[in-house]
Amino acid sequence: MRNIHDTQLLFDLSKPGRRALRLPTCDVPVQPIETLLPAGAIAEQAPALPELAEPQVVRHFTNLSTQNMSVDSHFYPLGSCTMKHNPKRNERAAGLAGLGDLHPYQPESTIQGMLALLYDLQEFLSEISGLPACSLQPAAGAHGELTALWVAAAYFRDRGEQRTKVLVPDSAHGTNPASAIMAGFETVTVKTLKSGAVDMEDFRAKLDDHIAVFMITNPNTVGIFEPAMRQIADEVHARGGLIYLDGANMNAILGVTRPGDFGADMQHYNPHKTFSGPHGGGGPGAGPICVTEKLASYLPAPIVVKRNDDNQAPVYSLDYERPKSIGRVRSFFGNTGVLVRAYCYIRTHGPDGLRRVSEQAVLNANYLLSRVKHFLPVPQGDRCMHEFVASAKQLKTERGVSAMDIAKRLLDFGVHAPTVYFPQTVPEALMCEPTETESKETLDAFAEMLFRITEEDPELLHTAPHTTAISRPDEVAAARQPTLCHCG
Amino acid sequence: MKPEELLYAKTHEWVAIEETDGGKTATIGISAYAVESLTDLVFIELPKQGRTVAALESFCEVESVKAVSDIYSPVAGEVTEVNTPLADALEWLSDDPYGAGWIAKVKITDDAPLAGLLDYDAYQKMCAEEA
Amino acid sequence: MPFTYNTPEDEAAMLAAIGVGSIEELLEQVPADFRLDRPLRLPAALGEMELDAHTRRLATRNASPTSHACFLGGGAYDHFVPAVVDAIASRGEFYTSYTPYQAEVAQGNLQAMFEYQSLVTRLTGLDVSNSSLYDGATAAAEAVLMALAASKGRTEVVLPDSLHPEYRQTIATYLSNLPGQVVTLTTPHGVIEAEALRASVNEQTACVVIPQPNFFGCIEEADELTRIAHEAGALVIAAYDPISLGVLKRPGDWSGEGAGADIAVAEGQSLGSPLQYGGPYLGMLACRESLVRRIPGRIVGQTTDRRGNRCFVLTLQTREQHIRRDKATSNVCSNQGLLALRATVYLALLGPTGLRETAHLCLQKSHYLAEQLCQSGRFEKVFAAPTFKEFVLRDRQADVAGFINDGLEHGFLAGIPLGRWYPELADCVLISVTEKRTREELDRLAAIVSSTRHGDAIAAHSALQTA
Prior knowledge:
The complex is a heterotrimer of chains A (about 500), B (about 130) and C (about 475).
Chain A: H1 10-13, H2 33-36, H3 54-65, H4 88-94, H5 112-129, E1 133-135, H6 141-158, E2 165-169, H7 175-182, E3 186-190, H8 200-206, E4 211-217, H9 229-238, E5 242-246, E6 266-268, H10 271-274, E7 289-291, E8 303-307, E9 315-319, H11 336-372, E10 388-391, H12 393-399, H13 403-412, E11 419-420, E12 429-432, H14 440-455, H15 458-462, H16 475-480
Parallel strand pairs in A: 2-3, 2-4, 4-5, 5-6
Antiparallel strand pairs in A: 1-7, 6-7, 8-9, 10-12, 11-12
Helix pairs in contact in A: 4-11, 5-11, 6-7, 11-14
Chain B: E1 7-8, E2 13-20, E3 23-30, H1 32-38, E4 43-45, E5 52-53, E6 58-63, E7 68-72, E8 76-82, H2 91-95, E9 104-110, H3 120-130
Antiparallel strand pairs in B: 1-2, 2-3, 3-9, 4-6, 5-8, 6-7, 8-9
Chain C: H1 8-18, H2 23-27, H3 48-60, E1 69-70, H4 83-89, H5 92-95, H6 107-124, E2 128-129, H7 136-150, E3 156-160, H8 165-174, E4 181-185, H9 194-200, E5 205-212, H10 222-231, E6 235-240, E7 263-267, E8 283-287, E9 300-304, E10 310-314, H11 321-324, H12 337-375, E11 379-381, E12 390-395, H13 400-409, E13 412-413, E14 416-417, E15 428-432, H14 439-466
Parallel strand pairs in C: 1-13, 3-4, 3-5, 5-6, 6-7
Antiparallel strand pairs in C: 2-8, 7-8, 9-10, 11-12, 12-15, 14-15
Organism (chain C): Botrimarina hoheduenensis
InterPro entries (chain C): GcvPA (IPR023010), GDC-P_N (IPR049315), GDC_P (IPR020581), PyrdxlP-dep_Trfase (IPR015424), PyrdxlP-dep_Trfase_major (IPR015421), PyrdxlP-dep_Trfase_small (IPR015422)
Keywords (chain C): Oxidoreductase
């Protein structure tokens, strides 16, 4: 239960002389610090950290935790983020001694179990994507995008081709154009139609021989499977370009279709979405990528390889000998802790279970769409894959109620808001992704709440939420005169 | 300055032209309509004094909490003066958009782009259609 | 699926409401020729008990810092993680929430991130911190991009060989298609030499990255190096070890209080995060106020709500990809929030005294071990520069692999061979000592070295006799 009295900062709780942790006394002969370190390098005083007792620290953070909505406690239909249940068995496995405590520079002979797991995960991800080569190194989805674009740049450089542009639909996640710029490309925006599909006329007008990559999200950000996927892939390939699949929405298509089979040359996964690695209040994620054979040699090193000698148990090792590799995109192997959870998720679902995940995710989204569309129009139409985008435009015009008002009011009903104002191509957007781990009862209750809200007094909605500890923070003041730390 | 006496770009900047020793200088700002539709501005990245701008080139940025908007120079020339205090007094943009809220002065080097600007009535009409 | 939510009756009712006959019909949105006509080739599903047994079996095939005393460092360290850190970070309200887009139902995360930012500014002596990046290497790369953007026109990035090799490789990848060039500064004596730096910086230098302590564990002359870089008009990026700030000067104070590094980055794994084979870790980045609009990633700010209560929100978001898209300061979206939370709890538990004591234990114990190993006669120190918790030793027998194998047999993860990154140091090993190591462990490691040397001497002696 929330303790509403405790919202002080750590620094407010501090009192000189308090301790929470007792360290062992030094059991080796102590030498004066001045004899070990140069005088100029030594700090004159310890950093100004707060001084607290253990019970204070525990109570402080426990009370803070109760001010969060989370998947464990609330329905969280935040579109595009795939806020599914995070199975606890995966948490346990990832924390096991021998998996969760390995040092990244241990000799390979001492981590054969971990390397076997990671090798299998590479194989699983390749099979699910239909793209044969995999790198587990990228740290998040956006990092996977960037890595794949570096791979594409290296591929074209190797072929002596000067390709400078990346095509990005206007409905894409902002990470797509931002990644393209960091990889040294210029971005060209392709329009989408009201249905969410790529505007083929605009696409063809912008397609030329300078296109390196088309970055496409499929199913796209309004939750429909791109109707012209075949033509887009064929026409980009005919020009010598590559197709990048933003894998944010893989939860819709596991075992149903594979990016490699619908024309993608590269893709990233968001294991923290699709494979239930928890979202951690903003991270960590991971961003493994899969690519076609012709791009394999450019992937970051190392990659886990397996050697089968006659009548011997297989031996796993890290392959650094990849002369065409783009190099490293981060330190150490990757966000292994997240990858172990993804491995566990795939192992506990198997081929049938993964397909069932997508079937149920699509069923839940379509069911919710069928209930919501009567009072909140869904411009894309009656069908969706794993998510859909409703629009409060009409409500805004008629009653002055915005998507933000609805989102804020939902919080009073004990539900996290959908993603609002994204994609920017849908006015007053409310992007709902229920995921497969919610029941019909939850969806029914959510639809009823939404309906009730659309009937409520607009004044009540403009000032919502009313039941939370705080309401409508002043974001303008926060941005105009930023206070970014409690400075000592 | 009176809004009725100014010229406007289709991108919502206003321009006041004055004759100065043999040339023309444009004072540039953004219209009240633009300020209102941008909502709650929090930051302005002013142009650098001395830079040259092409007509319709972005030379300044304003930010609200969740949007960034370019401000385009309606004229071609060199930025000769910048309203530096505006950065710390963004309320001038909404309180006095045609006065204290001016952004920069540009010494015009090419008269051609001036022909593309709208007068007050034409600009009002355009805003009415946009809304 | 390991559990079923919608019963067959639910499914039927839902399909009827949608107006389709089957789930298959819904999936027909995917064109037939794209549909996979076979099951995925994956192993059959395991139940929870089977998964538990399977993962435990995999785990037993690994040695780990739990089974072996760990002397491995190189940017990831076996520091102690207090129980409170695990207890707080495993609360579902923290780890199953996401980015605090709705501030009203995310004050827990937002306040914790504000506290994290505050702790980082206090640690580093700089003005602003973001709320985390992927890891130390990508934080360093992002800092380099910030410096290039801030020093308009300057294109050179000076990286010393004493900077973590994987950080250098990461920065090189980040710059691979952009207009920045790396200028490498060799460090034959294990630290950056002032004269060499002076010769490498000029009016083209955007920034100099100064590691402290550096990859070899050595203490750089940060004050002097900072002055040289600043005199050339370059920005200074500190790559520090947060634990070392229990004894070492804050990056912001290098060359004089408040006159030091312009940006400070670190690998924050040491602050309460498990080793977990390389990640997820914590990229820390702090900088001067003047660079605040170039910071990559999320930043939390303090404000008030409509009732006047103090509260916290994501702020300065126009820097970020979801708004500025191709003009964003970075593409970063997901960060390492949970690891930043762990660091916050860790620092709250340690306090100034705990951090100082931890740093002192690392310092004293590492010096003790270095001395013991050198006394054995097998090893010698390679660099004269002072060290903090890590050091490089040369194996006079040039058998680093043998040393590491002997260590394994006796229950030690003994050190990291340096030949992979530094061919000239192929006979050298990097050894790290944290506060967790006991004198008994240090003495035992030294004893193995002495006894193998002794053993080798006997072997050599008997070989002579046979001859």
